[in-house]
Amino acid sequence: MDHTEELTRFTANFVDELSQSGLTDVIISPGSRSTPLSMTIAEHPNLDHWVIIDERSAAFFALGMAKKKQRAVAIVCSSGTAAANYFPAIVEAYYSRVPLVVLTADRPHELRDTGAPQAIDQIKLYADYAKWFHEMALPEADEKMLAYVRSKASRAVNTANEGNPGPVHLNFPFREPLIPDFSLGNLWGDRNKGPFYARSEGTRRLDEEQIEELCNKLQSFQKGLIVCGPQPDPTFAAAVTELAAEWQIPILADPLSQVRAGKHHKDLIIESYDAILRNESIRGQLKPDFIIRFGAMPVSKPYLFYVKENGSIPQFVVENTAGYREPAGNKTEMIYADATLLCKDMAQITNGDPFDMDWLHTWQEMNRIAKDYLMNTDDTYVVTEGGTVRCLLEMTPDDSIIYVGNSMAVRDLDTFFVTSSKSLEILSNRGANGIDGMVSSGMGAASTGAPVTLLLGDLSFFHDMNGLLAAKYYGLNITILVVNNNGGGIFSFLPQVNHETHFEALFGTPLDLEFEQAVSMYGGTYQQPANEAELQQALEKSYHYNGLSVIEVKTDRSINLKWHREKWRQIEDSLLSFM
């Protein structure tokens, strides 16, 4: 058996096993050394392959796709700095628990550390950000080696998906020649035996005695809070709201919790807690007896202050599988159980009277007061950043996705996203919270065919404009709503704003770019509405357009700062009067 046949059979069995193990999508960035993988993946009848030229964009595209599909997506690149460009998305995938199968091609061992081109040290390149790393053997094609290569493919997909999902990394050393021979008989090997590693994974669940013990502990208190942080499970909202209704306690729901929108009951959801908790005096008067949190820590910084100030109270954090996501540094009881099942189990046990009803009614009334100010639309003659979010939530179609960027975008969504009966899935890259890769991530979500609106700022848009190529190349339908305050608007809310000498150069960073030209270059449509009525019309038009649609809302950072602060002042004054 010659080199080409060994290379072909080795690679074909690996690729086929990816498919056998449930993988359906591979994002390929072109390169020479990855030729065996790229061509074989493109040849496979059951794998969809997507070609994204820039590796950094490709990895974020895969992340957005995997986040939407909630299963592993593979990425393939050549050797050298091509693999290094994956790093930001792999870090994000690790922290946001998104499954990726990272396949990097490499020089064979004899060409490493010799000055050969495109040869860097790729062994454990992503360090602890990969759940599992394996340096693949050089291609051989005897029966033992074909079993070996299938075992690694199957393990990679399983490991990426299991437990807390995340990225895995396999490194492939390939010798030249690199072109596979697809004319070989029985190219894909024995395909009728199913995956090499069949996997059955159960959910973690507390037993009846543990449930009773937990409920007895919680129901010895009067003033409880359920907090729902970022989490992806679409079944969770109905379960947690049923639990809250049984206990009659408020739910503080993060915009990424999947709890603010949907068909479930929302009477007990407090979506304006970020505005409510901005005042230290108000926080002091809302001291709870306990907090039980599902999902990651919420976006809201006032909530983080609130938790830190109540570090002495019993706090419980529920993790579906494992982890210690408790950045406040408080003493915490970790509960490892499927969140949806835990809510259903706890709702079945009622020991005594409901919790303090005055406590619930106080939160509900404060939420009503805050929402009255936040949803006031007396500024419709201009487009504010809050008004932009209000319009988006009003106009976005039912059964669609809002993919939100970091910095001000996600914070404005937190502030102005009131409960809705629409079925909306809210996605964001809140693992490492970076502004990079947002366009590509939104494109990855759009590649699944779901309607996507990407909400982000001008710096995030600029950071990843090459991600727009995917929309042009694959005809993806996506609306991108760019809030352009000409720089880093979030810094206007931070202490750096008081240092005028260096603020604009180091933090404000105005771009002064005309994005319309970039949108045109990538074949998209562009609109720049001047007020809320025009923004509503622009959004409506974009949702009936097939392809890339970019809507740019221009705002002023200084005016935006004053506008936000005035809203928060009005809310604070009314809440202090109420209390």
UniProtKB/TrEMBL annotation:
Its cofactor is thiamine diphosphate; Mg(2+); Mn(2+). GO terms for biological process: menaquinone biosynthetic process. Its EC number is 2.2.1.9. Binds 1 thiamine pyrophosphate per subunit. It comes from the Bacteria. Residues 13-124 form the Thiamine pyrophosphate enzyme N-terminal TPP-binding domain. Belongs to the TPP enzyme family. MenD subfamily. NCBIfam families: menD. This is 2-succinyl-5-enolpyruvyl-6-hydroxy-3-cyclohexene-1-carboxylate synthase. The lineage of its organism: Bacteria, Bacillati, Bacillota, Bacilli, Bacillales. The gene is menD.
